Structure formats: C-alpha cells, structure tokens
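Hypothesis: this fold can be encoded by more than one sequence.
Test: take the structure tokens below, design a sequence, compare later.
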C-alpha cells in the first residue's frame, strides 16, 4: 500500500508533462499526494473496518474533494450516488493494492478486487485492470518470479507484456484506460531492479504518471520487500495525520511498510 502511495507522490509532478526520461529529481517541494492516495486509503479503511466500499469512497472524497479526481468519479462521489457508472478507467487499478494484502488466496484476492472495482468501474475492462494489478501484487508478495507473474497476467487477463519500455516510450501517450495503462505499468515493474527503479520506469513512459507509478510501485513494494526508508519517510511526511494513520494501521496489520534498506534484485528475479 505504501508503495502505491509513494508512486503517486513521486509521479504527481509529472502528470501531463510527458516525461520521457528516468533521470529526474525523485521528490520535489511540489510533490504531493493526489486522488490515487486518497482512494487507496479509502479501500484500506474499508478493509480494516468492514465498511462498504461506496461509503468509504464517498467519505474520503468529501474529506479531500480537491485531490484531482476524474470528472465522472467526482460527480459520482460528490452527489453520493451508489450505482456504478460503467468505467473502464485505471482508477480501479490504482486504488486496489490493499486488497492484495488482506486476501490469503489468489482466488480470494481476485474476488475482492472485483468487489472493490465494480462499485464504480463495473465495465469488464475496469474490473480486469483491478484484478490484474491485485494479482500481480499478491503473486509478488508470495514469492513468485517475474516470469511467473508475467505468464499469469498474460494468460488470465489477455494483457500483452512482451514489449520493452524502450519500444513503448517513443510513441506512448497519456492514457487513462486500464487496457492502455495497466499492462505498461506492469512492464515498468518487470523491467525494474528495485522499488525506485520501477517508479522511474513507469514515469518515464510519459503517460498518466502518478497512476502508473502508483501501480508499478505497489507491485514493486511487494516484490522487493518494502519501500526504502529514504523514500518512505519523506512520502509519509507529505500525508496529513488522517491519511498517515490509516497507512500505519494497515501496514502494521497486513503490509510490508518501510524496508530498512533497498534489497535490490531478488534471487528469483
């Protein structure tokens, strides 16, 4: 979960800038949390306290109404609607990471990812994006190799993961659909050598930077054993006490939280 939030904060200043390089300051004075963080915390709150996803998403939106939500979600949450709106956007994938830690089986994680998505994103592509992201995180945290993660995601979700970042980067553009941003975010993780590397990879594609770094960062946290302290501490400092409280409660109960040191490439990579 913290890996997703750190990716969001790091990617926040690259939104709509078409950054096409991995060489950039990791955190700047302008780096901040966005809707990706708020809604990830909302999902965690729902799982921790048995709240309905709709109620949690509504309440956290109203606590942070200016965090940068998509227009359709903003209208849905602002009016406290309870019916989904058939979205295929990547919002379902960027908020799903807590699900992968609560579930004890892959089947359970897939089912809960669907439930977390379909309260807004009931389009099959929106559900697929959430499930693919949650599955990648679950497989990463339970010891699967990158090849095993790649093969499972390709076979179960019909995502093509054989392109390289160098092949994608020149022509890749800003995309908010799950179909055109979740696979690329997973590739950013698959090509990485550590947590920071995964986030830099995702941002370097020049797309929906905060959300793609959020997704790649969530998988990288699970695979590499946490978020390096040098990243986790300044990211947590950018959250207020409410957000930080849920992150710490969830990490204490389920997650990896802060790694004492970046572990680099795992033996199974």
């Amino acid at each position: 979960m913290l890996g997703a939030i750190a990716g969001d904060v790091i990617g926040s200043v690259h939104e709509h800038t078409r950054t096409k390089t991995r060489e950039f300051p990791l955190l700047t004075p302008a780096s901040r949390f966005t809707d990706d963080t708020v809604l990830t915390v909302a999902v965690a709150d729902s799982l921790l306290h048995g709240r309905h996803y709709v109620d949690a998403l509504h309440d956290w939106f109203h606590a942070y109404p200016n965090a940068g939500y998509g227009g359709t979600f903003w209208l849905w949450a602002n009016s406290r609607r309870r019916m989904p709106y058939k979205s295929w956007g990547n919002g379902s994938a960027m908020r799903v990471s807590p699900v992968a830690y609560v579930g004890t089986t892959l089947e359970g994680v897939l089912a809960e990812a669907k439930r977390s998505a379909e309260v807004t994103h009931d389009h099959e592509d929106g559900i697929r994006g959430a499930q693919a992201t949650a599955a990648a995180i679950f497989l990463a945290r339970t010891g699967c190799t990158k090849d095993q993660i790649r093969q499972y995601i390709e076979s179960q979700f019909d995502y093509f993961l054989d392109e390289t970042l160098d092949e994608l980067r020149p022509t890749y553009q800003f995309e908010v659909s799950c179909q055109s941003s979740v696979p690329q975010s997973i590739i950013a993780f698959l090509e990485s050598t550590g947590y920071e590397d995964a986030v830099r990879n995702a941002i370097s594609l020049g797309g929906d930077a905060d959300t793609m770094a959020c997704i790649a960062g969530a998988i990288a946290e699970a695979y590499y054993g946490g978020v390096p302290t040098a990243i986790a501490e300044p990211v947590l400092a950018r959250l207020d006490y409410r957000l930080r409280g849920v992150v710490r409660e969830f990490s204490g109960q389920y997650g990896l939280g802060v790694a004492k040191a970046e572990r680099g490439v795992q033996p199974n990579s």
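Residues 2-16+28-258 form a domain with the ADP-ribosylglycohydrolase fold fold (CATH 1.10.4080.10). The chain has one domain: 2-16+28-258.
Hypothesis status: open.
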